[in-house]
Protein backbone atom coordinates (compact mmCIF):
# COMPACT_ATOMS: atom_id res chain seq x y z
CA UNK A 1 0.00 0.00 0.00
CA UNK A 2 2.82 2.36 0.90
CA UNK A 3 4.54 1.60 -2.40
CA UNK A 4 1.32 2.13 -4.29
CA UNK A 5 0.80 5.61 -2.78
CA UNK A 6 4.38 6.65 -3.51
CA UNK A 7 3.90 5.62 -7.11
CA UNK A 8 0.66 7.56 -7.25
CA UNK A 9 2.35 10.59 -5.71
CA UNK A 10 5.18 10.37 -8.23
CA UNK A 11 2.68 10.22 -11.08
CA UNK A 12 0.83 13.24 -9.71
CA UNK A 13 4.08 15.18 -9.39
CA UNK A 14 5.04 14.23 -12.93
CA UNK A 15 1.66 15.39 -14.20
CA UNK A 16 1.92 18.69 -12.37
CA UNK A 17 5.44 19.33 -13.62
CA UNK A 18 4.43 18.50 -17.16
CA UNK A 19 1.38 20.80 -17.30
CA UNK A 20 1.90 23.96 -19.33
CA UNK A 21 0.26 27.33 -18.61
CA UNK A 22 -2.58 26.57 -21.01
CA UNK A 23 -3.21 23.15 -19.43
CA UNK A 24 -3.57 24.98 -16.13
CA UNK A 25 -5.98 27.56 -17.55
CA UNK A 26 -8.03 24.73 -19.12
CA UNK A 27 -8.28 22.90 -15.78
CA UNK A 28 -9.48 26.18 -14.27
CA UNK A 29 -12.30 26.37 -16.81
CA UNK A 30 -10.81 29.36 -18.65
CA UNK A 31 -8.95 27.87 -21.61
CA UNK A 32 -6.38 29.68 -23.73
CA UNK A 33 -7.76 31.03 -27.00
CA UNK A 34 -4.35 32.39 -27.98
CA UNK A 35 -0.92 31.26 -26.80
CA UNK A 36 2.23 32.95 -28.08
CA UNK A 37 5.84 32.26 -27.20
CA UNK A 38 9.18 32.13 -28.97
CA UNK A 39 10.77 30.52 -25.92
CA UNK A 40 8.67 27.43 -25.10
CA UNK A 41 5.55 25.40 -25.68
CA UNK A 42 2.67 26.58 -23.48
CA UNK A 43 0.70 23.29 -23.61
CA UNK A 44 2.38 20.13 -22.34
CA UNK A 45 1.41 18.31 -25.55
CA UNK A 46 2.39 21.08 -27.98
CA UNK A 47 5.12 20.09 -30.41
CA UNK A 48 4.17 22.31 -33.37
CA UNK A 49 5.92 25.44 -34.55
CA UNK A 50 6.51 28.27 -32.09
CA UNK A 51 7.62 30.94 -34.57
CA UNK A 52 8.89 31.52 -38.07
CA UNK A 53 12.07 33.36 -39.02
CA UNK A 54 13.27 34.79 -42.33
CA UNK A 55 16.93 35.24 -43.15
CA UNK A 56 18.51 38.15 -44.98
CA UNK A 57 20.85 36.19 -47.23
CA UNK A 58 18.21 34.56 -49.45
CA UNK A 59 14.81 35.44 -47.96
CA UNK A 60 14.24 31.79 -46.97
CA UNK A 61 12.00 31.06 -43.98
CA UNK A 62 11.97 28.26 -41.44
CA UNK A 63 9.81 27.38 -38.45
CA UNK A 64 11.29 26.89 -35.01
CA UNK A 65 9.60 24.37 -32.71
CA UNK A 66 10.24 23.09 -29.21
CA UNK A 67 13.00 20.57 -28.50
CA UNK A 68 10.27 18.17 -27.39
CA UNK A 69 6.51 18.35 -26.76
CA UNK A 70 5.89 20.98 -24.10
CA UNK A 71 9.56 21.96 -24.14
CA UNK A 72 11.89 24.88 -24.75
CA UNK A 73 12.43 26.31 -28.26
CA UNK A 74 15.14 24.81 -30.44
CA UNK A 75 17.41 27.88 -30.48
CA UNK A 76 20.23 25.88 -32.08
CA UNK A 77 18.05 25.41 -35.18
CA UNK A 78 17.70 29.20 -35.40
CA UNK A 79 21.43 29.76 -34.89
CA UNK A 80 22.31 27.34 -37.64
CA UNK A 81 19.70 28.70 -40.10
CA UNK A 82 20.86 32.28 -39.46
CA UNK A 83 24.62 31.62 -39.44
CA UNK A 84 26.54 34.37 -41.29
CA UNK A 85 23.41 36.37 -41.99
CA UNK A 86 20.59 38.20 -40.19
CA UNK A 87 17.14 36.85 -39.30
CA UNK A 88 13.80 38.45 -38.46
CA UNK A 89 10.81 36.94 -36.67
CA UNK A 90 8.00 36.89 -39.24
CA UNK A 91 5.31 34.95 -37.33
CA UNK A 92 4.62 34.03 -33.73
CA UNK A 93 2.31 31.04 -34.02
CA UNK A 94 -0.77 30.57 -31.87
CA UNK A 95 -0.38 27.31 -29.98
CA UNK A 96 -4.08 27.16 -29.02
CA UNK A 97 -5.16 25.63 -32.32
CA UNK A 98 -7.34 28.65 -33.17
CA UNK A 99 -4.96 30.10 -35.72
CA UNK A 100 -4.51 33.40 -33.88
CA UNK A 101 -0.98 33.88 -35.19
CA UNK A 102 0.82 37.22 -34.87
CA UNK A 103 2.44 38.68 -37.96
CA UNK A 104 3.98 42.01 -39.03
CA UNK A 105 1.55 44.77 -38.00
CA UNK A 106 -0.13 46.84 -40.73
CA UNK A 107 -0.28 50.64 -40.66
CA UNK A 108 -2.90 52.15 -38.33
CA UNK A 109 -4.64 55.38 -37.49
CA UNK A 110 -1.75 56.74 -35.43
CA UNK A 111 1.33 55.58 -37.30
CA UNK A 112 2.73 53.61 -40.19
CA UNK A 113 5.85 51.54 -40.28
CA UNK A 114 8.82 52.11 -42.56
CA UNK A 115 8.13 49.18 -44.88
CA UNK A 116 7.13 50.18 -48.42
CA UNK A 117 3.59 49.01 -47.56
CA UNK A 118 3.60 50.95 -44.29
CA UNK A 119 3.85 47.86 -42.13
CA UNK A 120 5.84 47.92 -38.90
CA UNK A 121 9.27 46.36 -38.65
CA UNK A 122 9.77 42.78 -37.56
CA UNK A 123 11.99 41.92 -34.59
CA UNK A 124 15.56 40.69 -34.98
CA UNK A 125 15.42 36.99 -34.16
CA UNK A 126 18.48 37.10 -31.89
CA UNK A 127 17.88 40.37 -30.03
CA UNK A 128 16.71 38.84 -26.74
CA UNK A 129 18.62 35.67 -25.83
CA UNK A 130 17.78 34.01 -22.50
CA UNK A 131 17.95 30.56 -20.98
CA UNK A 132 15.10 28.47 -19.61
CA UNK A 133 16.46 25.95 -17.12
CA UNK A 134 19.77 26.24 -18.94
CA UNK A 135 18.40 25.87 -22.48
CA UNK A 136 18.99 28.86 -24.75
CA UNK A 137 15.95 30.53 -26.30
CA UNK A 138 15.13 33.90 -27.85
CA UNK A 139 12.45 36.41 -26.87
CA UNK A 140 10.89 39.06 -29.12
CA UNK A 141 12.88 42.31 -28.79
CA UNK A 142 10.58 45.17 -29.77
CA UNK A 143 12.40 48.35 -30.82
CA UNK A 144 10.38 51.47 -31.61
CA UNK A 145 8.76 50.91 -35.02
CA UNK A 146 8.34 47.17 -34.47
CA UNK A 147 4.99 45.45 -34.01
CA UNK A 148 2.89 42.32 -34.53
CA UNK A 149 -0.86 41.96 -34.88
CA UNK A 150 -3.83 39.80 -35.83
CA UNK A 151 -7.04 41.62 -36.80
CA UNK A 152 -9.07 38.51 -37.76
CA UNK A 153 -9.05 36.28 -34.72
CA UNK A 154 -11.05 33.30 -33.54
CA UNK A 155 -12.42 33.00 -30.00
CA UNK A 156 -10.95 36.21 -28.52
CA UNK A 157 -13.36 38.18 -26.26
CA UNK A 158 -15.53 40.85 -27.89
CA UNK A 159 -17.89 43.39 -26.32
CA UNK A 160 -18.05 42.99 -22.56
CA UNK A 161 -17.15 39.28 -22.61
CA UNK A 162 -14.77 37.96 -19.96
CA UNK A 163 -11.13 37.25 -20.69
CA UNK A 164 -7.77 36.89 -18.99
CA UNK A 165 -4.21 37.32 -20.19
CA UNK A 166 -0.65 37.26 -19.01
CA UNK A 167 2.69 38.16 -20.57
CA UNK A 168 6.26 37.52 -19.46
CA UNK A 169 8.41 40.55 -20.33
CA UNK A 170 11.88 42.01 -19.67
CA UNK A 171 11.56 44.36 -16.70
CA UNK A 172 14.64 46.33 -17.80
CA UNK A 173 13.57 47.04 -21.40
CA UNK A 174 10.96 49.80 -21.64
CA UNK A 175 10.38 53.42 -22.48
CA UNK A 176 7.62 55.99 -22.23
CA UNK A 177 6.50 55.68 -25.84
CA UNK A 178 3.08 54.37 -26.77
CA UNK A 179 2.66 51.46 -26.37
CA UNK A 180 4.35 48.22 -25.44
CA UNK A 181 1.11 46.23 -25.24
CA UNK A 182 -0.01 42.62 -25.47
CA UNK A 183 -3.69 41.87 -25.65
CA UNK A 184 -7.08 42.78 -27.07
CA UNK A 185 -7.39 45.71 -29.50
CA UNK A 186 -9.31 47.18 -32.41
CA UNK A 187 -9.73 45.09 -35.56
CA UNK A 188 -9.39 48.25 -37.70
CA UNK A 189 -6.00 49.39 -36.31
CA UNK A 190 -7.75 52.69 -35.54
CA UNK A 191 -8.70 54.27 -32.22
CA UNK A 192 -12.44 53.54 -32.14
CA UNK A 193 -12.98 54.85 -28.60
CA UNK A 194 -12.73 54.18 -24.90
CA UNK A 195 -13.12 50.55 -23.90
CA UNK A 196 -12.26 49.17 -27.34
CA UNK A 197 -9.02 47.69 -25.96
CA UNK A 198 -8.08 45.52 -22.98
CA UNK A 199 -4.36 44.88 -23.10
CA UNK A 200 -1.37 44.53 -20.81
CA UNK A 201 0.93 47.57 -20.96
CA UNK A 202 4.50 47.71 -19.59
CA UNK A 203 6.60 50.86 -19.42
CA UNK A 204 6.73 54.46 -18.28
CA UNK A 205 3.52 55.55 -19.97
CA UNK A 206 1.45 58.22 -18.29
CA UNK A 207 -1.65 57.97 -20.51
CA UNK A 208 -3.98 58.26 -17.53
CA UNK A 209 -2.75 56.79 -14.28
CA UNK A 210 0.62 55.36 -13.36
CA UNK A 211 1.83 53.08 -10.64
CA UNK A 212 3.80 54.19 -7.61
CA UNK A 213 7.36 55.55 -7.76
CA UNK A 214 9.25 56.26 -10.95
CA UNK A 215 8.27 53.16 -12.98
CA UNK A 216 8.20 51.09 -15.09
CA UNK A 217 4.72 49.79 -14.32
CA UNK A 218 2.26 47.15 -15.37
CA UNK A 219 -0.84 49.03 -16.51
CA UNK A 220 -3.86 48.21 -18.65
CA UNK A 221 -4.32 49.87 -22.02
CA UNK A 222 -8.11 50.23 -22.23
CA UNK A 223 -7.86 52.72 -25.17
CA UNK A 224 -7.32 56.42 -24.66
CA UNK A 225 -5.98 55.61 -21.24
CA UNK A 226 -3.40 53.49 -19.45
CA UNK A 227 -5.31 52.56 -16.32
CA UNK A 228 -4.19 51.29 -12.95
CA UNK A 229 -7.69 51.14 -11.41
CA UNK A 230 -10.80 53.32 -11.55
CA UNK A 231 -10.55 57.00 -12.54
CA UNK A 232 -9.61 57.91 -8.98
CA UNK A 233 -6.51 55.67 -9.06
CA UNK A 234 -3.69 57.81 -10.39
CA UNK A 235 -0.57 56.40 -8.73
CA UNK A 236 -1.75 53.91 -6.13
CA UNK A 237 0.86 52.32 -3.85
CA UNK A 238 -0.69 48.92 -4.68
CA UNK A 239 0.82 49.13 -8.20
CA UNK A 240 4.58 49.23 -7.58
CA UNK A 241 7.54 50.19 -9.75
CA UNK A 242 8.79 46.94 -11.28
CA UNK A 243 12.40 46.08 -10.52
CA UNK A 244 12.79 42.42 -11.54
CA UNK A 245 14.58 41.36 -14.75
CA UNK A 246 11.74 38.99 -15.69
CA UNK A 247 8.16 40.11 -15.09
CA UNK A 248 4.83 38.31 -15.14
CA UNK A 249 2.09 40.82 -16.01
CA UNK A 250 -1.59 39.89 -15.74
CA UNK A 251 -4.74 41.75 -16.83
CA UNK A 252 -8.25 40.29 -16.79
CA UNK A 253 -11.74 41.66 -17.24
CA UNK A 254 -15.37 40.57 -16.94
CA UNK A 255 -18.59 42.59 -16.87
CA UNK A 256 -18.21 45.37 -14.29
CA UNK A 257 -14.90 44.10 -12.89
CA UNK A 258 -11.28 43.87 -13.86
CA UNK A 259 -7.87 43.31 -12.30
CA UNK A 260 -4.14 43.89 -12.74
CA UNK A 261 -1.70 41.47 -11.16
CA UNK A 262 2.05 41.08 -11.39
CA UNK A 263 5.16 39.46 -10.04
CA UNK A 264 8.72 38.36 -10.64
CA UNK A 265 8.64 35.75 -13.42
CA UNK A 266 11.75 34.07 -12.00
CA UNK A 267 10.64 33.67 -8.38
CA UNK A 268 7.79 34.11 -5.94
CA UNK A 269 4.11 34.73 -6.31
CA UNK A 270 1.78 37.16 -8.05
CA UNK A 271 0.38 40.16 -6.20
CA UNK A 272 -2.90 41.82 -7.01
CA UNK A 273 -2.26 45.46 -7.93
CA UNK A 274 -5.96 46.24 -8.48
CA UNK A 275 -9.23 44.34 -8.54
CA UNK A 276 -12.54 46.11 -8.72
CA UNK A 277 -14.77 48.41 -10.69
CA UNK A 278 -14.14 49.65 -14.22
CA UNK A 279 -13.20 53.26 -14.86
CA UNK A 280 -16.14 55.44 -15.92
CA UNK A 281 -16.39 57.19 -19.25
CA UNK A 282 -17.01 54.46 -21.78
CA UNK A 283 -15.25 51.54 -20.10
CA UNK A 284 -18.34 49.93 -18.54
CA UNK A 285 -19.54 48.02 -20.42
CA UNK A 286 -16.42 47.35 -22.49
CA UNK A 287 -16.47 47.36 -26.30
CA UNK A 288 -13.69 44.87 -26.97
CA UNK A 289 -13.10 44.06 -30.62
CA UNK A 290 -10.92 40.97 -30.37
CA UNK A 291 -7.82 41.80 -32.41
CA UNK A 292 -4.48 40.87 -30.81
CA UNK A 293 -1.52 43.25 -30.66
CA UNK A 294 2.07 42.89 -29.54
CA UNK A 295 4.45 45.83 -29.05
CA UNK A 296 2.09 48.54 -30.37
CA UNK A 297 -1.06 50.42 -29.44
CA UNK A 298 -4.49 49.61 -30.84
CA UNK A 299 -4.09 52.35 -33.46
CA UNK A 300 -0.58 51.07 -34.28
CA UNK A 301 1.17 53.72 -32.17
CA UNK A 302 4.63 52.23 -32.52
CA UNK A 303 7.11 54.29 -30.51
CA UNK A 304 7.43 51.88 -27.57
CA UNK A 305 10.08 49.30 -26.74
CA UNK A 306 10.06 46.13 -24.66
CA UNK A 307 10.77 42.42 -24.80
CA UNK A 308 8.10 39.70 -24.89
CA UNK A 309 8.89 36.09 -24.03
CA UNK A 310 5.48 34.41 -23.74
CA UNK A 311 1.84 35.27 -23.23
CA UNK A 312 -1.69 33.95 -23.58
CA UNK A 313 -5.27 35.15 -23.76
CA UNK A 314 -8.12 33.12 -22.29
CA UNK A 315 -11.86 32.93 -22.63
CA UNK A 316 -13.56 33.49 -19.28
CA UNK A 317 -12.23 35.30 -16.21
CA UNK A 318 -9.44 33.18 -14.70
CA UNK A 319 -9.48 32.74 -10.94
CA UNK A 320 -6.59 34.10 -8.92
CA UNK A 321 -5.82 30.50 -7.96
CA UNK A 322 -5.48 29.49 -11.61
CA UNK A 323 -3.18 32.43 -12.28
CA UNK A 324 -1.13 31.58 -9.20
CA UNK A 325 -0.57 28.08 -10.61
CA UNK A 326 0.42 29.59 -13.97
CA UNK A 327 2.91 31.85 -12.15
CA UNK A 328 4.40 28.77 -10.44
CA UNK A 329 4.74 27.15 -13.86
CA UNK A 330 6.49 30.25 -15.26
CA UNK A 331 8.90 30.31 -12.30
CA UNK A 332 9.59 26.61 -12.82
CA UNK A 333 10.44 27.31 -16.49
CA UNK A 334 13.61 28.90 -15.10
CA UNK A 335 14.05 32.14 -17.03
CA UNK A 336 17.61 33.49 -16.68
CA UNK A 337 19.92 35.89 -18.50
CA UNK A 338 22.71 34.80 -20.83
CA UNK A 339 25.49 36.54 -22.75
CA UNK A 340 24.41 39.24 -25.21
CA UNK A 341 27.70 39.08 -27.11
CA UNK A 342 29.57 36.56 -29.24
CA UNK A 343 32.74 36.33 -31.33
CA UNK A 344 36.19 37.58 -30.31
CA UNK A 345 36.01 39.37 -26.94
CA UNK A 346 36.03 43.17 -27.03
CA UNK A 347 37.01 43.77 -23.43
CA UNK A 348 35.97 46.63 -21.21
CA UNK A 349 39.09 48.60 -20.32
CA UNK A 350 40.79 48.00 -23.65
CA UNK A 351 41.25 50.57 -26.44
CA UNK A 352 40.50 49.38 -29.97
CA UNK A 353 40.44 50.17 -33.67
CA UNK A 354 37.95 48.83 -36.23
CA UNK A 355 39.25 47.88 -39.71
CA UNK A 356 36.77 47.37 -42.54
CA UNK A 357 36.72 43.94 -44.22
CA UNK A 358 34.96 44.73 -47.50
CA UNK A 359 37.45 44.21 -50.37
CA UNK A 360 37.22 47.89 -51.38
CA UNK A 361 38.22 49.17 -48.02
CA UNK A 362 40.54 46.97 -46.01
CA UNK A 363 42.92 49.85 -45.20
CA UNK A 364 40.08 51.95 -43.79
CA UNK A 365 39.26 52.28 -40.09
CA UNK A 366 36.33 53.72 -38.16
CA UNK A 367 37.28 57.32 -37.32
CA UNK A 368 35.44 60.55 -36.77
CA UNK A 369 35.56 64.11 -38.05
CA UNK A 370 33.80 66.18 -35.43
CA UNK A 371 30.49 64.48 -34.73
CA UNK A 372 30.52 62.56 -38.01
CA UNK A 373 31.64 58.94 -37.85
CA UNK A 374 33.36 57.78 -41.02
CA UNK A 375 36.07 55.47 -42.33
CA UNK A 376 39.53 56.79 -43.10
CA UNK A 377 42.74 55.21 -44.30
CA UNK A 378 45.06 55.11 -41.29
CA UNK A 379 48.67 53.87 -41.24
CA UNK A 380 51.42 53.82 -38.64
CA UNK A 381 53.04 56.89 -40.24
CA UNK A 382 49.92 59.06 -39.89
CA UNK A 383 49.64 61.96 -37.44
CA UNK A 384 48.77 61.19 -33.88
CA UNK A 385 45.65 63.33 -34.34
CA UNK A 386 44.35 61.00 -37.07
CA UNK A 387 45.37 57.93 -35.10
CA UNK A 388 43.51 59.20 -32.02
CA UNK A 389 40.41 59.92 -34.09
CA UNK A 390 40.41 56.23 -35.09
CA UNK A 391 40.92 54.92 -31.53
CA UNK A 392 38.16 54.02 -29.07
CA UNK A 393 37.98 53.16 -25.38
CA UNK A 394 35.80 50.15 -24.63
CA UNK A 395 33.64 50.90 -21.58
CA UNK A 396 30.75 49.12 -19.89
CA UNK A 397 27.60 49.61 -21.95
CA UNK A 398 25.97 52.87 -20.87
CA UNK A 399 22.50 51.40 -21.42
CA UNK A 400 23.14 47.74 -20.60
CA UNK A 401 26.10 46.42 -18.66
CA UNK A 402 26.09 43.14 -20.61
CA UNK A 403 27.22 45.09 -23.71
CA UNK A 404 29.73 47.89 -24.32
CA UNK A 405 30.03 51.54 -25.36
CA UNK A 406 32.83 53.11 -27.40
CA UNK A 407 34.30 56.36 -26.09
CA UNK A 408 36.29 58.56 -28.44
CA UNK A 409 39.99 58.62 -27.43
CA UNK A 410 40.38 62.24 -28.51
CA UNK A 411 37.06 63.44 -27.05
CA UNK A 412 36.62 61.91 -23.59
CA UNK A 413 32.99 61.78 -22.50
CA UNK A 414 31.81 61.41 -26.10
CA UNK A 415 30.62 58.08 -27.45
CA UNK A 416 29.55 56.45 -30.69
CA UNK A 417 25.76 56.58 -30.75
CA UNK A 418 23.11 56.15 -33.42
CA UNK A 419 20.46 58.74 -34.20
CA UNK A 420 18.23 58.33 -37.22
CA UNK A 421 20.40 55.25 -37.82
CA UNK A 422 23.45 57.41 -38.60
CA UNK A 423 26.39 57.16 -36.23
CA UNK A 424 27.67 60.20 -34.36
CA UNK A 425 30.31 60.96 -31.74
CA UNK A 426 28.26 62.89 -29.20
CA UNK A 427 28.78 63.95 -25.59
CA UNK A 428 26.90 61.80 -23.14
CA UNK A 429 23.91 63.89 -22.05
CA UNK A 430 23.03 61.41 -19.32
CA UNK A 431 19.64 60.58 -20.83
CA UNK A 432 18.15 57.10 -21.03
CA UNK A 433 17.86 57.52 -24.80
CA UNK A 434 21.53 58.47 -25.22
CA UNK A 435 22.77 55.61 -23.06
CA UNK A 436 20.72 53.10 -25.06
CA UNK A 437 21.69 54.59 -28.43
CA UNK A 438 25.36 54.33 -27.38
CA UNK A 439 25.18 50.66 -26.32
CA UNK A 440 26.53 47.96 -28.64
CA UNK A 441 26.63 44.17 -28.32
CA UNK A 442 29.55 42.76 -30.37
CA UNK A 443 28.79 39.54 -32.25
CA UNK A 444 30.85 37.09 -34.27
CA UNK A 445 31.56 38.76 -37.62
CA UNK A 446 28.79 38.16 -40.14
CA UNK A 447 31.25 37.42 -42.96
CA UNK A 448 33.32 35.03 -40.84
CA UNK A 449 36.04 37.48 -39.81
CA UNK A 450 36.30 39.57 -36.58
CA UNK A 451 33.15 41.12 -35.16
CA UNK A 452 29.91 42.68 -36.20
CA UNK A 453 28.77 45.44 -33.85
CA UNK A 454 25.06 45.18 -33.10
CA UNK A 455 22.95 47.95 -31.59
CA UNK A 456 21.48 46.99 -28.21
CA UNK A 457 18.33 49.07 -28.69
CA UNK A 458 17.80 48.13 -32.37
CA UNK A 459 19.30 44.63 -32.70
CA UNK A 460 18.47 44.38 -36.39
CA UNK A 461 21.00 47.21 -36.88
CA UNK A 462 24.80 46.92 -37.06
CA UNK A 463 27.77 49.27 -37.59
CA UNK A 464 28.03 49.58 -41.38
CA UNK A 465 30.23 51.64 -43.64
CA UNK A 466 28.49 52.99 -46.73
CA UNK A 467 30.15 55.60 -48.96
CA UNK A 468 32.79 55.97 -46.20
CA UNK A 469 30.21 57.03 -43.58
CA UNK A 470 29.04 54.96 -40.63
CA UNK A 471 25.44 53.88 -40.05
CA UNK A 472 23.47 51.56 -37.81
CA UNK A 473 22.14 49.66 -40.80
CA UNK A 474 19.64 46.82 -41.07
CA UNK A 475 19.83 44.17 -43.78
CA UNK A 476 17.39 45.26 -46.48
CA UNK A 477 15.69 48.01 -44.44
CA UNK A 478 14.09 51.24 -45.60
CA UNK A 479 17.22 53.42 -45.95
CA UNK A 480 19.70 53.42 -48.85
CA UNK A 481 22.46 52.41 -46.42
CA UNK A 482 20.44 49.27 -45.59
CA UNK A 483 21.16 47.82 -49.05
CA UNK A 484 21.52 44.03 -48.98
CA UNK A 485 24.45 44.05 -51.44
CA UNK A 486 27.70 43.65 -49.44
CA UNK A 487 25.75 43.93 -46.15
CA UNK A 488 27.61 41.17 -44.34
CA UNK A 489 31.00 42.49 -45.51
CA UNK A 490 30.22 46.13 -44.74
CA UNK A 491 29.07 45.17 -41.22
CA UNK A 492 32.14 43.08 -40.37
CA UNK A 493 35.20 44.60 -38.67
CA UNK A 494 38.57 43.35 -37.57
CA UNK A 495 38.92 44.74 -34.06
CA UNK A 496 42.52 45.29 -32.91
CA UNK A 497 44.44 47.37 -30.41
CA UNK A 498 43.96 51.13 -30.77
CA UNK A 499 46.45 53.21 -32.78
CA UNK A 500 46.93 55.65 -29.96
C1 LIG B 1 32.88 39.33 -48.40
O1 LIG B 1 33.30 38.45 -47.37
C2 LIG B 1 33.56 37.14 -47.82
C3 LIG B 1 33.85 36.29 -46.59
O2 LIG B 1 34.87 36.84 -45.79
C4 LIG B 1 34.71 37.18 -48.80
O3 LIG B 1 34.95 35.87 -49.28
C5 LIG B 1 34.34 38.07 -49.97
O4 LIG B 1 35.45 38.21 -50.83
C6 LIG B 1 33.96 39.44 -49.45
N1 LIG B 1 33.52 40.26 -50.58
C7 LIG B 1 33.85 41.53 -50.69
C8 LIG B 1 33.42 42.24 -51.92
O5 LIG B 1 34.48 42.12 -49.84
From TrEMBL:
Subcellular location per the Swiss-Prot or TrEMBL entry: Secreted
GO CC term, one of those recorded: extracellular region
Intrachain S-S bonds: 22-32, 82-87, 178-179, 403-441
Active site: 223 (nucleophile), 299 (proton donor)
Pathways involved: Glycan metabolism; L-arabinan degradation
Main location: secreted
Enzyme class: hydrolase
GO MF terms held by the record: alpha-L-arabinofuranosidase activity
The entry's keywords: Carbohydrate metabolism, Disulfide bond, Glycoprotein, Glycosidase, Hydrolase, Polysaccharide degradation, Secreted, Signal, Xylan degradation
EC id: 3.2.1.55
Origin superkingdom: Eukaryota
Signal peptide as annotated in the record: 1-19
GO biological process: arabinan catabolic process; L-arabinose metabolic process; pectin catabolic process; xylan catabolic process
PANTHER family listed in its UniProt record: ALPHA-L-ARABINOFURANOSIDASE B
The protein's name: Alpha-L-arabinofuranosidase
Amino acid sequence: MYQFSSLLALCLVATLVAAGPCDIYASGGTPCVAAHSTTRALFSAYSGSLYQIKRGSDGATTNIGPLSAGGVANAAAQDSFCASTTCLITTIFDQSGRGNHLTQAPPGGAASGTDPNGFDNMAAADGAPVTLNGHKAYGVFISPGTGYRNDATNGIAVGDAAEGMYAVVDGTHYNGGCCFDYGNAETSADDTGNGHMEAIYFGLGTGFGTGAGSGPWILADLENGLYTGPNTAVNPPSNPTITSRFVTAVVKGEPGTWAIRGGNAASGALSTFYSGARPSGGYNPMHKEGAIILGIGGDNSNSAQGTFYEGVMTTGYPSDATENSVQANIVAAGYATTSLTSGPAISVGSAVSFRATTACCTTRYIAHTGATVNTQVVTSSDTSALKLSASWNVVTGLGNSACVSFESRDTPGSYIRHSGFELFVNANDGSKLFSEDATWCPQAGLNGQGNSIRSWSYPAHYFRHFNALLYAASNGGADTFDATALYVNDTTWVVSAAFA
